[in-house]
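ESCALATION

Customer reports they have been waiting on this structure for their group meeting. Please prioritize. Original submission:
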Amino acid sequence: MHEQWRLTTGEAFPLTLTFDGQQPFNVHGVPIADKLVRVPMPSNSSLISQFRRAKAMTAYTQGRLFQFNLDQTGQLLPVLVNCVAKIRQSGLAGAGDFSVLPAAKPVAAAATSESAPARPDRLFDQTGTGFLVSTNGHLVTNAHVVQGCVGDIQGNLSGEAPAKLRLVSSDETNDLALLQVTGSFRDVAKIRDKAIQSGDSVVAIGYPFHGLLTSDFTVTTGIVSSLSGLLNDTRFLQISAAVQPGNSGGPLLASSGDVVGVVAAKLNAIKFVRATGNIPENINFAIKTGALRDFLDNSVVPYQISDAKAELKTTDIARNARAFTYLISCKAKAKEKETVRN
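Update from on-call: job pushed to the front of the queue and completed.
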């Protein structure tokens, strides 16, 4: 919140946040009042980690710099967590004095050499999708596809042997990651130069439920339902093309075969039913090419753009995508809880 803001509720806009002069974070804020902005901070992101530790924050937006004092943040956040826990347990009337934090559990004594060895974290197979954007082997996927990976990250085109991928950079705020495979490549995805519109046809390519359904990629079609995501987040498209776990990071293609987005998430149907009593249908999301191109520009990766106007058959789009769409896999630590990502 800042007294000098005069904002329009619901219209998301970019913010650059800097904590204690460290590396800046490029985020999007959604005004929920004329002076109040909501910025999502995933609990496992470096953004929230720096926010918790920082003493000062600056926010640069629309040509102006705003300064915030965060001296009490370290004390405030645990109190808010305690408040939420109490209300969930006993309801609002039973919240009481939530500023009194529960006593910390005693720390167990360190294991001695005679103690049983600690049980290693359980690993599981984590898969997603990515696509080539440069002839030098650069691939784009979602940051959450490679988050928690232990050991090598593997990538392979349909029907080909897997190759080791190198993680080049990651943007947790916009859920994008850049990987690279060794070699030189002729067929790469082209990014559409012209913005897509509501109602335009799209094709999603990916590897959902790999090994359970099919080892080949799947093709689903739909339209652009909206030019913004949850809470009017303008970084995202809402699409009707069906996506499932494993589609994350895959290309969303226009009828010309050019990339118009990066498949990112589907609406959590169970949570939606609990909140509204209705079952959502065909509500999925993709990251727009504006955020993608900014990410590639910041990573100094050459990519190809296209203004192709000719429409292709879905079969031709899928055939062309086979040359640049990768299955991405790794061993990862088990997550504590499910998310709305796929």
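Sent to customer with the following note: Residues 265 and 341 are 4 Å apart (CA to CA).
Escalation resolved.
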